[in-house]
Design a protein that fits this description.
Layout (H helix, E strand, L loop, with lengths): L1 H5 L1 E9 L1 E3 L5 E3 L5 E7 L8 E9 L2 E2 L1 H4 E3 L5 E6 L6 E8 L11
Parallel strand pairs: 1-9
Antiparallel strand pairs: 1-3, 2-4, 4-8, 5-6, 5-9, 7-8
Length: 105
């Protein structure tokens, strides 16, 4: 049991214009799970969104099972019920620039 306490899985965050509510970089082998909230730093207004949001565990894409997100929100919840390998979280937010054209007088 002591040997298991020494081993850890690594969490890597690749975040562009996004933040994570949890900055843990190591998870003990005996951990039951992991959860964090990723926030789009541009906010959800006017079409801003995540252009990329993926989660892999030991190189396997688990995004569809681990991420809860709606397009009109500036947050995505990542919930991994049982961590069984190294985790990589990649989030890239995009900002939509709305330009209104005005006629010349």
């Amino acid at each position: 049991m002591q040997e298991l306490l020494k081993k850890k899985y690594i969490v890597t965050y690749n975040l562009t214009h996004a933040t994570s509510s949890d900055t843990t970089t190591e998870i003990p082998f005996i951990n039951e799970g992991y959860e964090t909230v990723i926030t789009n730093t541009y906010g959800a207004a006017k079409g801003n969104a995540f252009s990329t949001l993926t989660v892999t565990m030991d190189g396997v894409d688990i995004t569809s099972d681990a991420v809860r997100y709606t397009a009109d929100s500036d947050e995505a919840t990542i919930d991994i019920a049982e961590v069984t390998g190294n985790v990589v979280i990649t989030a890239v937010s995009k900002q939509v620039c709305n330009v209104t054209a005005k006629a010349n007088p």
